[in-house]
Amino acid sequence: MPLRLLPLLTDRPQSGDHLGQLLGVGRVTVNTLARRLQEEGVLVRVSRAGYALEPGTPAPGLVPLRGEFGRALCYRGTVTSTQDELRFWADAERHPAPHGAVVVAERQTAGRGRRGRTWDTTHGTLAFSLLLREALTLPELARMPLAAGVALHAACTDLGVPCGLKWPNDLLTPDGRKLSGILLEADLRGEEARRAVLGIGINVGAAPQGAAHLQEAVPQLTRAEVLGEVLGQLEHWLAQPAPAVLAAWKAASLTLGRPVRVATARAVVEGVARDLDEQGNLLVDTEKGPTTVSAGDVQLVGTLNP
Ligand code: BTN
Q: What gap in Å lies between CA 19 and CA 5, rounded to an integer?
């Protein structure tokens, strides 16, 4: 029931009477619904002027969209994970989520990170998932994490935030603190992916201990603005051919040419990150010779100079 009120709210206050008329209820009920939304984690401001979402909330109508991604946008308070919420919507019998649909939430009770880790969604972070419904070949799927990293880098650079990429797609400040993370989950069918869900967490106005946030560099940035810019860049970069993605990734890299320690499923690889191969694998020069890493957690060894 409180979800009926949510699509009507914008960043401008609207009176209880007006909202009540739209919903066919009285203003006392509007107030109750607004309080329930607040309890669910939605940032509703209640003032003498009426009910509004906090400025910069990444809700429908408040995100400056450039292309098709995000035209179908679901904004929620608390969810388990936006990944689950988007899959649920994609599987709905009536009005299933289309290609480019986005679910964004204020809080996740079970946010997922790469390699089975949890993802802390604190107030001030932007957590969203994007649905890619077009069939993807396995090489296209393998390239997607790098393309998504390039898109995030392009968006944040355009917004004035200095940053670079750690393989495969962590966005870091020049001194090596994490600004955002990307999780790709795909449903495979034979030699192709039937659909993919790309989950992105960006520290916009707050960050967990040891990480960084975008407002450290550009204090006035809002989550709505960041979401619009990132979706525009994702739409562009996910459609680019492999050579263009690889070249852009290398230009944005904080990884290549540096000593690294890579934890893979089987071993720890230590050496100097030399290059990417055509599939986007990381080539590491180790004491025993060149090693190709297709998946793993990279630690940059030594200090980075801001
Ligand atoms: C990483 O480990 O660096 C990837 C983190 C990805 C987190 C995002 S937040 C939105 C989406 N929902 C999730 O549960 N995870 C992703």
A: 8
| Under 8 Å between Cβ of 250 and 276 | yes
Q: pTM for this structure?
A: 0.94
- pLDDT, average across residues 263-274: 94
The yes-or-no verdict on residue 304 having pLDDT over 70 is: no
Q: If pLDDT is split at 50, 70 and 90, which confidence band does 138 have?
A: confident
Mutate to test the pocket of ligand 1, among 81, 86, 119, 122 (most ligand atoms within 8 A of CB): 119
Ligand 1 mean position to 211 CA, how many Å? 15
Which residue's structure tokens are 């066919």?
24
In this prediction, residues 58-81 reach a mean pLDDT of 96
**Alpha carbon nearest to ligand 1 atom 16, residue:** 199
Q: Tell me how far apart the alpha carbons of residues 202 and 53 are, in angstroms, rounded to a whole number.
A: 20
C-alpha R_g of the chain: 21
